[in-house]
Amino acid sequence: MKSISSSIPKPGKSAWIIRCVIFPIITFRLAWASTVVWRIASVGRSSFFSTLIKRLNRGENCAIILASNINDAAHDCGPGLAISNTLIAILKWILMQHSRIDQNPARLVIFVSCLFVFIFAAFAAAQDNYEIKKFKIEGVHRVSKEALREGLATRTGPWYNRFLFWRRDPLFSTEEFQRDLRRIIEFYQREGFFHARIASHEIDADDKKQHVRLRVKIEEEQPTQILDFQLAGTEVPRVDQLFRIVKSNLKPGDRLRAFVLRNTQIALAVDLTNHGFPFASVETQVKRDEATHTAVVIFRIKPGPACVFGDVQVTGTSRISPRAVRDELPFEPGQVFNQSKLVEAQQRVYRLELFQYVSIRAATAEQKSSEIPIEIRVREAPARTLKIGVGYGTEDLFRGTINFRRRNFLGGARRLDIETKYSDIEPGRVQARIFQPHFFDAKTGLIISPFYLRRDEKTFRPREKIYSLRSFGGELVAQRQFNLQTNAFVRYRLEDAKVIPGTAQFDSLRMQIPRTYRKASWGFGILYNSGQPLFSPTRGRYYALQVDYSGPLSEFYSFRTEFHYIKTTLEGRMYREAAPSAVVMAYRLKLGSLEVLDDPLNLAPLEERFYSGGSSSVRGWQRSKLGPHIDETPIGGQSLLEGSVEARFKLYKSFGAALFVDFGNVWATSLTYKLEEIRFATGWGLRYDTPIGPIRIDAARKNNLAAPIDKRRWEFYLSVGQAF
């Protein structure tokens, strides 16, 4: 019987080329090739390889099989990969010419597989680093397409890239695209679609423009729904409350979503930790029925021992008494342990502004009984700090500030701040603030603040003084911090003021207003601010309400007031990301009313009236020039309506831009808002981000003029910080 080895002919030239050229290259790529083969199998398109194995088992000619199925192999190896007809013909010819070595099918399979992976790598790499012009995902009906795209690395550029010739769209990566196909399936599984699959995917490459257009089609299939949920465990505390938590998150018939299960699990653990069980653990078990597409969710709870707060140890203080730290704690030894109280305590101690570093932790490792010791470590800030700042703006021109702070002033964790400021609008301002923490309780502080202020109200172009206000007085403020976002205050303010006219028009107006006068007023305000980050918010909301009253109820002994009025201001802002890391939409609306009491002349102090226009107002008008006026001198009004809509987006690194619409006006009488008299301004701006807020350049155009006070169509501003 003839041996197999004797039937194999001597290698020809093509065989030597294969052995000397192709095989070294293949060897160099073996590690990469194994990853590619695994990736092909993971995508689920292995019809070619499964067919090959079946036909080999039937004893068919291996080379002929490979040649006849080369198109299927190309489709399996490279989704959307366009293999030219010439290349396919060459591969078929090589395979048919070497079909005589079919007596050693294992060698041929290894050779052709490696050769094909090598060729696939070359063609796949040819599409890498092409710009992604379009990425279409079809078949998404029952999940959020935006949430799906957020989890993918392959994405197109923002819509405004087409107008910015210097910006390139994201670059295509074959390897990352394959990962994204798996990420799509994983996303659907987390959303409860355990049988979702990729029906097809295409890559349309334009070699001339070096662009690619991607298309993925998804078949969602039937989702898995929650049939029931259970709590399991021995001696589970707070069962009724835990059931309410589960019911608020899960309902029979809801889709089985991983993040909902995770949030419910965390909520159960947090509830136990905040009610005396710091060692509680919660595990989630899901029993799925593939036939009915339903699932039963079981939360297994191990509460651990019940615990209380133990002794509190404060370390790191030297000048400041540890009592100042202890007074801010919202708990005492012996009370039921509550993890959220530790977080609140850290926030309260930080708000003292006495420490650079605050760490509060439960020493659970040192627990010897049901009492858990609390360790507080702090690092004191310098006792004295001096800050000097300079700047420039279109409205106030050159400005400078000097701020001195003395921490632990006269003991008791008090703070003393002295601030002086100079600018073209405020050529003289000196204010001192003494802050006394823990007034009544840990959430309330007392502020005593004497001040001297000189403010020159000027026209913008040319800069002519309208009037100068000089006031001296003080205020007493009780401030309460409800939580990290919400605070409120009650204030009593007393001041003596003097008005000095700067123009003849204003001098005629001033005849109706005393040259010197005294004001005594009560103020109340509440503020909610969840905007983040602080200096340039991209998300969150801001609400502020302030009411000031001057009248008989604000007069004490010799503290008399010459003006009786109620002034109310309400403002709301909202920040929302319209597209991830691309566009931030910012909205603002402000209302104001000034009601004069018991005065037939209906006079209100000039500094309390409403003015509109400027870099942080309706930007199409100069500072204070929108509203009532005499000739070209603004005199303010008693009703205010302002608003803005602004789209902020990134250009390059720290550079950004904005498009905005501002609107508003001021009316002479209170509670008067005439919509037909609202003025509009549109414009654009440039931004450069800094640690203290963006440097801002804005250009705004009036859409309707408020003749005769201001006939300029365009206004330009340079400032620091967002407009709102």
Explain how this protein is built:
This protein is an alpha+beta fold. It has six domains: 5-127, no CATH class; 131-219, Ubiquitin-like (UB roll) (Roll), CATH 3.10.20.310; 225-302, Ubiquitin-like (UB roll), CATH 3.10.20.310; 308-380, Roll (Ubiquitin-like (UB roll)); 383-437; 453-720, Porin (Beta Barrel), CATH 2.40.160. It is built from 14 helices and 27 strands. The strands form five sheets. A 16-stranded antiparallel beta sheet has the order 10-11-12-13-14-15-16-17-18-19-20-23-24-25-26-27. Helix 10 packs antiparallel against helix 11 (258-273). It is globular. The protein starts with 12 loop residues before the first helix and ends with a strand.
What attributes characterize this protein structure?
724 residues; alpha+beta; Ubiquitin-like (UB roll); 3-stranded mixed β-sheet; globular; disordered N terminus
Uncertain regions: pLDDT < 50 for 5+ in a row?
Answer: 1-11, 26-49, 71-86
Sheet/helix structural class:
alpha+beta
Number of helices: 14
* Strand order of the biggest β-sheet: 10-11-12-13-14-15-16-17-18-19-20-23-24-25-26-27
Give the averaged pLDDT, no decimals.
83
Shape: globular
